[in-house]
Amino acid sequence: MTALDSVDTVVGTLRPIELDELLTRASLLTRLDRKYMLPLADLPFVLGGLDEDSQVLEMDGARQFAYRSVYFDTPEMDGYLGAARSRRRRFKLRIRTYLDSGQHFFEVKTRGPRGTTVKQRIPYEGELGRLGAEARAYADTALAESGIDSGRFRFVPTLTTYYRRTTLFLPATGSRLTADTDLTWTLPDGRALRTPDRTIVETKAGRAGSGADRLLWSLKHRPCPVSKYGTGLAALRPELPSNRWLPVLRRHFPTALDGSPA
Fold first, then answer.
1. Would you say the C-alpha torsion 25, 29, 31, 34 has a positive or negative sign?
2. Which of 33, 37, 114, 233 is most buried, judging by how many CB atoms fall within 10 Å of its CB?
3. Distance (Å, rounded) from C-alpha 222 to C-alpha 139?
């Protein structure tokens, strides 16, 4: 049995929760995110150790869903550098596609008070390779609310990510956990990187954390500054400053550091 088979077995034992109920009980668009990157072989132990009342998002009988995100940044990489240098006023722009349903959303992520993440989004119907006028206006407004003057910025696509996500609801703390597998990063020039033996687990909760965080800590996993956008770009474009992500790159992206093909 593979690690993914074991994950499917554990997830199959959980009670389902529908999307509307999940959004009502744990929308968490303003939250503290904790991210963990760990071997895929450890994921069944994490999911299997959660509280018995944990629920898994289920839609049309499926419990795992494919995502694609196209990220946009300036040619000078202002968004990337803001994260790499831990600037308070930093941002991410992306068009997220839920591949199973074909829905597209334009999302703006900024930093809120005390390290929280604020995500704002609108439905998107334009070209995936460029920002339409509505999305651009939405980005300028959302960034201005965070103290970022983006009027001089030109946004271009810089990275595309693909992964499969399982989402759990943890009733005891009203929090969520997502587990992303089959991770792939692709640059506009076609260079790509895959990490099939790794998973990114993210908890979305208040500052006190959740039962999932305490479980991960007990299993010797600690939050790390992994970012699908930042770490993926750092792995594929070694000329970019990447000190913030070096421990993650060394542990989980060894081929990206030694120049070997991924």
1. positive
2. 233
3. 33
Are the C-beta atoms of residues 130 and 117 closer than 8 Å to each other? Answer: no
Rounded Cα gap, residues 137 and 141, in angstroms: 6
How far CA 20 is from CA of 24, 33, 59, 63, 132, in Å, comes to 6, 22, 10, 15, 29
> Domain-by-domain residue ranges, the chain?
3-256
Q: What is the dihedral of CA 41, 181, 37, 85, to 10 degrees?
A: 160
Which CATH code fits 3-256? 2.40.320.10
Residues 222, 36: Cα–Cα separation, whole Å:
6
Alpha-helix residue ranges (DSSP H) falling in the chain? 3-12, 19-25, 43-48, 78-84, 133-145, 211-218, 228-236, 246-252, 254-258
The pLDDT tens digits of the residues spanning 191-238 come to 999 999 999 999 987 776 788 999 999 999 999 989 999 999 999 999
Please report which confidence band the pLDDT of residue 31 belongs to, taking 50, 70 and 90 as the band edges.
low
Residue pair 32/111 in contact by the 8 Å Cβ criterion: no
Q: Note the pLDDT tens digit of each residue in 109-128.
A: 998 776 677 889 999 998 88
Give residue-wise pLDDT tens across range 51-74.
999 999 999 999 999 999 999 999
Q: Using alpha carbons, select from 251, 238, 247, 153 the residue that is nearest to residue 195.
A: 251
